[in-house]
Amino acid sequence: MNTSGILSAKNRINVIQGDFYVSDDRELVLSTVLGSCIAICLYDPAIEAGGMNHFLLAAPSGTGEIGPLKQRLYGAFAMEQLINEMIKRGACRSTMKAHIYGGSNIHRAMAHIGVSNANFARDFLRQDGIPISMEDTGGSAARRLDLKPATGQIRCKHIPTEDVPSSALPMMRPAEPSRVGDVELFLTEKDHPQWDRSRS
Amino acid sequence: MGPITILTVDDSPSMRALLKHALLGQGHVVHDAEDGVVALDWLNRHIPDLVITDINMPNMDGFGLIEALRKQDRYRDMPILVLSTESSDEKKVRARDAGATGWIVKPFDPEKLAAAVRRVTH
Questions:
Q1: Nearest C-alpha neighbor of A118 from the set A43, A177, A35
Q2: Which of B85, B116, B122 sits opposite A81 (nearest CB)?
Q3: What is the DSSP string of B13-75?
Q4: Closest residue to A180, CB basis, from B12, B92, B109
Q5: Does domain A11-174 match CATH 3.30.1330.200?
Q6: Along the 200 residues of chain A, how does pLDDT read in single tens digits?
Q7: Which pairs from A161-167 meet CB under 8 Å and 24+ separation?
């Protein structure tokens, strides 16, 4: 694939862990550095727009590990934010193409994390009916990822972990969304009499 | 709290599966629909105790579903919870004005969801 313009782009947004971005700006490049984390790139040629997320599903023990259901819920949240933003711009699950990157096993003791992240992403996309046209996961190297969202052009470069500044590597803990499950009830008992479906 | 019948409405099969897993674990009977149109069709034939709906869906979104239900006498008082990745006040006000009972921000916490279900159904 011709990736000219990706490296020289002046308008670049770094998609950090826990974040996502969608655009149809032809001058924009989305970039990130991945270790065990996963980045999903979505592109829909019908609307010439694409996007990227960046998330960590599982974490090494001793870092406040969360239960399996909550891990999947947080991962699903990262996926849904990206997919929803694409759909708001007119994309369809059936016409979108997905690429999966990352899930590297940087440290042997943490080997399950990269695999677990990649498995989750693959299963989610398949269950949601979004075709996966490219996957580059696993291995032991970090990845530098660049996406031109308006064209779907992608460049993924493997980088020896020791060549990546520690400040550029993602945090080794799952990004817990700040507003997990906030509940707001609108109506009082007076406004909202107890529902009794037998009356209906 | 005994089991209740809940209809969940979400266009993401993955999210429907996760929500179903959580609600079944709390002992409820769960049916699901992929958008507002499919939900209305099901609701013409069945009456649940609670509807939990996403907002952003194709064909008919969550706002359209809530408005359509509140126009029907038999669904005037049924609790309807919105479950969405969105959390803007503007969207919440629109949902409240349409007749929603409450708003839960994704990713949902299973315990908070259980508490909200108890609160609006008992």
A1: A35
A2: B85
A3: HHHHHHHHHHHHHTT-EEEEESSHHHHHHHHTT---SEEEE-S--SSS-HHHHHHHHHTSGGG
A4: B109
A5: yes
A6: 455 567 777 799 999 988 999 999 999 999 999 988 899 999 999 999 999 999 987 655 445 556 777 778 888 889 999 999 999 999 999 999 999 999 888 766 666 788 888 999 999 999 999 999 999 999 888 999 999 999 999 999 999 877 766 655 555 555 556 666 788 998 655 555 555 555 44
A7: A161/A35, A161/A106, A164/A33, A164/A35
- The reply to whether the predicted model has a pTM over 0.95 is no
Smallest CA–CA distance from A179 into chain B, residue: B105
**Domains present along chain B, CATH in parentheses:** 5-121 (3.40.50.2300)
- pLDDT for B12-34, tens place per residue? 999 999 999 999 999 999 999 99
Verify whether the Cβ–Cβ distance A197 to B109 is below 8 Å: no
User: Residue B107 is nearest to which of A83, A180, A197, comparing CB atoms?
Assistant: A180
| Calpha distance B117→B52 (Å, rounded) | 9
Residue B38 near chain A (CB below 8 Å): no
Q: Does A183 contact B102 at a Cβ distance shorter than 8 Å?
A: yes
Task: Residue B37: count other Cβ atoms within 10 Å of its Cβ.
Answer: 17
Q: What is the ipTM of this complex?
A: 0.84
Distance from C-alpha of B2 to C-alpha of A162, rounded to nearest angstrom: 57
Beta-strand relationship, A38-44 and A97-102: antiparallel
